[in-house]
Write a structure and sequence with these properties.
Keywords: Glycosidase, Hydrolase, Signal. This is Fibronectin type III domain protein. Pfam families: CBM60, Cellulase, fn3, Por_Secre_tail. One of its GO terms (biological process) is polysaccharide catabolic process. This protein is mainly β. The protein folds into 9 domains: 356 residues, Alpha-Beta Barrel (TIM Barrel); 82 residues, Immunoglobulin-like (Sandwich); 145 residues, Jelly Rolls, CATH 2.60.120.260; 80 residues, Immunoglobulins (Immunoglobulin-like, Sandwich); 71 residues, Immunoglobulin-like, CATH 2.60.40.1080; 68 residues, Immunoglobulin-like (Sandwich); 126 residues, Lipoxygenase-1 (Sandwich), CATH 2.60.60.40; 140 residues, Lipoxygenase-1; and more. The chain has 14 helices and 81 strands. The protein has an 8-stranded parallel beta sheet with strand order 9-8-7-6-5-4-3-10. Strands 18, 20, 21, 23, 26, 27 and 29 form a 7-stranded antiparallel beta sheet that branches. Strands 55, 59, 61, 62, 63 and 64 form a 6-stranded antiparallel beta sheet that branches. Helix 1 crosses helix 7. The longest helix is centred in the first third of the chain and has 20 residues. The protein is elongated and about 195 Å long. The two termini are 111 Å apart.
């Protein structure tokens, strides 16, 4: 349970904190970075009060332990900081905290500016940086060793320089605010002006008016603003005692909390020093003021000194100011341990004081039982040194004293553990190196060892063993009454039962036990070491002068042996003269009493006043009577290696002390019990067992009757069967016909292994013994078999090709054993013959294996063979140049469909750049067989200042004119080289003499249509750009506006189309196709090049007007007409005219007519010599429909070609002669 107490004065602290953080931020102030080893923040816990009062509020570490600290200074002068080794030593000695003393604060207040000292200034960035670095190193040392750090501004007593303290905490508080193992202590004994102890109990009115307390609270508010989560200790008076008021310190804390600024007591506590006692002799107050403070507020004793009782010579110091006794403890630390408060020792300051003073203080803690172990985060793992020089003194028949040289430890030795014959018999109560051993057996050998232990539970190794023989067993001895008695009854009238209770002198060794009153009774312990028959004598007061036999003659004593009433008789002549005042002593005896070894009690009771008992004497009588013979021998727990023999106990006149066990006439051992474990035998062994008994006098009984005992028999392991020869890597199963459930083992796992089921695996060549073992009743047997493992023959490694082309062969070889066999796992891919010749069958992968055999063992070597189809390539040569200026670029692209319509690029050449202005050949080797119709020559830098010309291309040696660019570029066929305006083809290669000329990209394409209205004015039309061939239509990409009310005379109508336009995609569309007017289009001009108008196909019906010499060339469905004339659209016509069938012979070098044609097509061609011509009839998709030869003569030739088998549509016919190829396009109508 935690007590959480808060002050309510919070109205001004939040603005202060915000302003404070803003100022530090503007100053660029940094913070110490947390480390993984920082311990978690301390907490406030509530614990029970040792004296039973209200619970105490205390500080606890993350391990739930109190803070236990030494000190370390951070100082501008002298030794500036402790090294890392000091913090490691503190951890090893069990401390868990260090109080960091900022001693410059003391110097500032002690001297101020003077010749002796110039005050340091926390507002000086050089000083501040240096001091924070020193502090951070120490903070990190503590973190690395699992220690908390209490940073203390150590002002000089009783000064308090608020200005200096506020400057210090302004920078220190936020700098370490994120280090969870750091605690702040605001001041050091600044209490004058407030009062100490009882004077602190001045009430809220007095305390809150104190300027000193107000200054301390202002400093606290600065600290809390800089470190909202850090635990802060406040006030730190120099002592708390129980003089005067008993609640002064608690009331002062309450007054402090009432001043402006909130106090969260879960993160705040009251520090104090313990330099005042708690009322000197009035220790009964039990630290009342201290406990009252902790019952109300959390606190921690941050400083105390060694007590005055510890000499300066012991500590090596000259400081005479010491901590007084507190709560009846000389060492204040032990009070703090007892109350569970924690503590900080001023006299642990640096490595020297730690090593010198720690053992002194810790030894006191151990002695008082308030020692502790280190925190779990700082474990002490170092054991003490081994105890040496073990010796035994005061050796008796049953006891002795052990002593040794003390061990040492890194912290402290807490106690020692003593072992007898390897068994612990106890630990010392303190670290003193001695131990009294009792209860030993007389005349016996005993081995002792000792181990040292520390508070952390670390134990040293055992020291060297000491062997001791105890004293001989006494058979005649005296037990003094005064040292061996206990009181049974004490009437207490005349005196108290006890030794030397009245009388000037006493008997025997100077003492006797007086029985002053009738009814007084004692019992005397007598330790008998050897069993036997004894005479027991008791010496008592027998009388006085004038009546020396009074007590004996009148039976004034009653005797009981082991609580049994016995009659003792007087020993004649045993009465002595006066020994002490008017007393005579005599002896009485009980004869022949059998006593066993051990403690016996003789009770003596007074039947008259003023009796005395001096001592008891026992004397062993001689014994010649042997025990009875042991009987009833039986055997049990029979195994293969032994059994237990038991018998009935013998009897004796005194007592049986031991039995001798004999096997087959040989003595095995003696035992004091009536059974014995026989061990070490073999299975199936017979034993004749006898026993005899002995008493303490050495009298042996006769030997018992013999008992024959047999150990368990061997189980049947049987014989092993199964194959015992196998190959390396193979397995075989062995079986046994013996008892099931046995185990299998092998003699040589490098040759063969065997599992629990008898499965043998061959590992390497050689032999191994396989064993089958069975067990029952502690007996085991086995059977064996030899397994031979043959080595695998060497198949070697395969050499030769790993790849092969279909239809080819290669030879594979092995460097292993010859004469093996070859095989393929996939004959559909590759086959191999007996000589290793492998043949590629089809593309794929096959595994080729070479197998050899030797001694019945086979081994194979394999490799993977990949068979591939022959690599087919297509060589494409493009003859091209740059026009106007050098620098044109192009590449060859292979499409997944017709190059004219585009699609996906399957592969392409690298870019051919910087073309010269003269024609050159550019070669691209394409993968696979390429359809020439899927080849596209693509001009890349289609811009001025250069154009591009492609003359032709050669595909695997066949030359073609360059493919039309379709939608990919705009160009035209140059007519300068005799191509005779062969025109565009949209999806085939053009076979004519010429080259493809690409124009630099225009921003627009001017299209001029020359047209008129026929008969009557008023016809209308528009120009449409299609996304495909204009005759087949498709989607209109763009169009002109409507040209309306055409006159009857021809005129030019212009449409500037956007971008590059393929002339083959231009359509002239007649709009108002009806009487009373028709429409005629003469031609169109595209980018300055004139074309006859494209046939309208299904969009309008018309014919070519013959008036202008066009000779009724007729309709073409998907090409431009290159002739002199104009296109005449008829209004509302639904049929073709008979003029379409006119046969007009063309006048070109190569031509066809009629066009369109129905059943027969005439081809005209000119030749310079007689020769044979190869004719081809080709579909519009590029497929060759027919090839036939024709013999022609020099001059003009006309060839009639039957076409009645062709369907309606466009076709191409070609002729190859004079190393040239001529083509013409024609249409078939049905």
């Amino acid at each position: 349970m935690k007590n959480v107490l808060h002050s309510t004065s919070t109205q001004w602290i939040l603005p202060l904190r915000l302003l404070y953080l803003i100022c530090l931020s503007h100053a660029g102030f940094s913070q110490s970075a947390p480390l993984a080893t920082d311990r978690a923040r301390i907490t406030v816990n509530s614990i029970p009060d040792y004296y039973g009062g209200p619970n105490l509020n205390v500080l606890r570490t993350d391990a739930g332990t109190p803070l236990r600290a030494g000190t370390a200074w951070i100082w501008e002068k002298g030794s500036q900081e402790e090294p890392a080794a000091y913090y490691a030593s503190m951890r090893q000695k069990g401390l868990n905290a260090v109080r960091m003393i900022l001693f410059d604060t003391w110097e500032v207040e002690a001297y101020q500016p003077s010749a002796q000292f110039t005050p340091t200034d926390w507002n000086d960035p050089v000083y501040r940086t240096r001091q924070l670095a020193r502090m951070e190193r120490s903070v990190n040392y503590a973190s690395a060793n699992g220690l908390y750090v209490i940073i203390n501004s150590h002002n000089k007593i009783p000064e308090y320089n608020e200005t200096y303290a506020n400057a210090l905490w302004t920078y220190v508080a936020p700098y370490f605010a994120n280090r969870t193992h750091v605690i702040y202590e605001a001041s050091n004994e600044p209490m004058p002006g407030i009062g100490i102890n009882g004077n602190m109990d001045m009430g809220a009115a007095g305390a809150t008016a104190s300027p000193r307390l107000q200054a301390l609270k202002r400093t606290f508010n600065i600290m809390r603003a800089g470190a909202p989560n850090t635990h802060i200790m406040v006030l730190t008076p120099n002592g708390i005692s129980d003089y005067g008021f008993g609640t002064g310190m608690g009331n002062l804390a309450a007054s402090f909390a009432q001043l402006p600024g909130s106090v969260d007591w879960t993160k705040t506590s009251v520090a104090y020093h313990l330099y005042h006692n708690d009322g000197a002799a009035a220790v009964s107050v039990n630290a009342a003021n201290l406990r009252n403070l902790h019952s109300r507020y959390p606190g921690w004793p941050s400083e105390n000194n060694f007590p005055a009782s510890v000499s300066n010579a012991t500590l090596g110091i000259t400081d005479s100011f010491r901590s007084p006794q507190f709560d009846n403890d000389v060492y204040v630390n032990q009070t703090c341990e007892r109350l569970g408060l924690g503590w900080s020792m001023w006299n642990i300051n640096g490595q020297v004081e730690l090593d010198r003073n720690w053992p002194v203080m810790y030894a006191d803690a151990v002695a008082k039982g308030w020692n502790w172990i280190p925190d779990p985060t700082t474990p002490d793992t170092q054991a003490p040194t081994v105890p040496t020089a073990l010796v035994a003194t005061n050796i008796t028949a049953n006891s002795l004293t052990l002593s040794w040289t003390a061990s040492t430890d890194n912290i402290a030795v807490t106690n020692y553990e003593v072992f007898k014959n390897g068994v612990s018999i106890g630990m010392t109560a303190t670290s003193a190196p001695s131990f009294n051993v009792v209860g030993l057996v007389c005349a016996s050998n005993v081995s002792f060892t000792v181990k040292a232990r520390d508070a952390a539970g670390n134990a040293s190794a055992a020291g060297t063993a000491l062997n001791v023989t105890t004293g001989n067993c006494p058979t005649n001895f005296v037990a003094e009454a005064e040292t061996n008695f206990t009181t049974v009854a004490d009437v207490g009238s005349n005196c108290t039962v006890g030794p030397s209770n009245y009388a000037a002198t006493t008997a025997s060794n100077g003492l006797a036990v007086g029985l002053c009153d009738i009814g007084d009774e004692i019992k005397i312990a007598v330790n008998v070491f050897v069993s036997g028959n004894y005479d027991i004598q008791v010496r008592v007061r027998s009388g006085w002068t004038g009546s020396p036999m009074h007590f004996i003659t009148n039976n004034k004593y009653e005797y009981r042996l082991n609580d049994v009433l016995r009659t003792f008789t007087y020993v004649q002549g045993s009465v002595t003269s006066v020994i002490d005042v008017d007393s005579y002593y005599g002896t009485v005896k009980l004869s022949g009493m059998p006593l066993t070894a051990g403690i016996h009690y003789l009770r003596v009771k007074a039947l008259e006043n003023w009796g005395k008992v001096d001592y008891v004497q026992v004397n062993l009588l001689s014994d010649t009577q042997a025990p009875s013979v042991p009987t009833g021998l039986t055997a049990s727990a029979i195994t293969g290696s032994g059994f237990t023999i038991s018998w009935a106990a013998s009897t004796d006149n005194v007592a049986v002390t031991e039995y001798e066990v004999v096997r087959n006439g040989v003595s095995l051992a003696t035992t004091s019990t009536t059974s014995y474990n026989v061990t070490g035998l073999s299975c199936g062994t017979n034993s004749d067992m006898t026993v005899r008994a002995r008493d303490a006098a050495g009298n042996w009984s006769s030997v018992s009757n013999a008992l024959n005992v047999s150990t368990s028999s061997l189980p049947n392991a049987g014989s092993i069967s199964g194959t015992t020869t196998l190959c390396q890597g193979a397995t075989t199963t062995l079986t046994s016909n013996g008892v099931t459930g046995g185990s299998w083992t092998g003699s040589n796992a490098a040759v063969a292994t065997v599992n629990a089921s008898g499965l043998v695996s061959g590992v390497s060549a050689g032999t191994a013994t396989i064993t089958y073992s069975v067990s029952a009743n502690g007996c085991s047997s086995n059977t064996t078999s030899t397994v031979t493992v043959n080595a695998l023959p060497n198949a070697g490694t395969l050499s030769g090709t790993s790849t092969l082309t279909t239809g080819t062969t290669a030879t594979l070889t092995s460097n292993g054993l010859s004469g093996g066999t070859w095989s393929s796992n996939n004959a559909n891919v590759a086959t191999i013959n007996a000589s290793g010749v492998v043949s590629g069958v089809s593309a794929g992968t096959a595994t080729i294996t070479y197998t050899v055999m030797s001694n019945g063992c086979t081994r194979s070597a394999s490799r993977s063979l990949t068979v591939t189809a022959p690599i087919i390539t297509t060589t494409i040569v493009v003859r091209a140049r740059s026009v106007g200026n050098a620098g044109a670029s192009f590449r060859v692209e292979i499409m997944n469909g017709s190059a004219a319509t585009g699609g996906t690029i399957l592969q392409n050449s690298t870019t051919f750049t910087n073309l010269s202005t003269t024609f050159a050949n550019y070669t691209f080797t394409a993968t696979g067989t390429v359809n020439p119709n899927q080849i596209r020559v693509r001009y890349l830098n289609d811009m001025t200042p250069y154009d591009f010309e492609a003359d032709y291309m050669t595909v695997n040696g066949t030359t073609y004119q360059t493919e039309a660019a379709s939608t990919y570029s705009v160009g035209f066929w140059n007519s300068e080289n005799g191509c005779n305006n062969a025109g565009f083809l949209t999806n085939s290669l053009i076979h004519c003499d010429g080259y493809f000329h690409f124009l630099a990209t225009p921003t627009t394409t001017p299209i001029i249509v020359r047209a008129r209205s026929v008969n009557n004015p008023g016809a209308s039309f528009r120009v449409e750009i299609m996304n495909g061939s204009a005759p087949t239509g498709g989607t209109v990409l763009q169009s002109s506006g409507n040209f309306t009310n055409l006159p009857t005379t021809f005129a030019n109508y212009t449409f500037n189309a956007t971008g590059i336009i393929n002339p083959n995609q231009i359509r002239v569309r007649y709009i108002n196709d009806m009487a009373p007017y028709d429409f005629e289009a003469d031609y169109m001009t595209v980018n300055g090049t004139t074309y006859q108008t494209e046939a309208a196909s299904t969009y309008s019906v018309g014919f070519w007007n013959v008036a202008n010499g066009c000779n009724n060339a007729g309709f073409l469905t998907n090409s431009l007409i290159h002739c002199d004339g104009y296109f005449h659209f008829l209004a509302n016509s639904s049929a073709r005219l008979s003029a379409e069938s006119l046969e007009t012979e063309p006048v070109t070098t190569f031509g066809v007519y009629p066009n369109p044609a129905k059943d027969l097509l005439n081809v005209t061609l000119y030749s310079t010599t007689d020769r044979q011509v190869k004719m081809k009839l080709i579909g519009i998709n590029g497929a060759v429909l027919r090839i036939f030869p024709e013999q022609i003569k020099s001059g003009k030739n006309t060839i009639s070609v039957p076409i009645h088998q062709l369907n309606e549509g466009p076709f191409i016919i070609s002729a190859e002669y004079d190393n040239r190829r001529y083509t013409a396009k024609f249409s078939v109508i049905r």
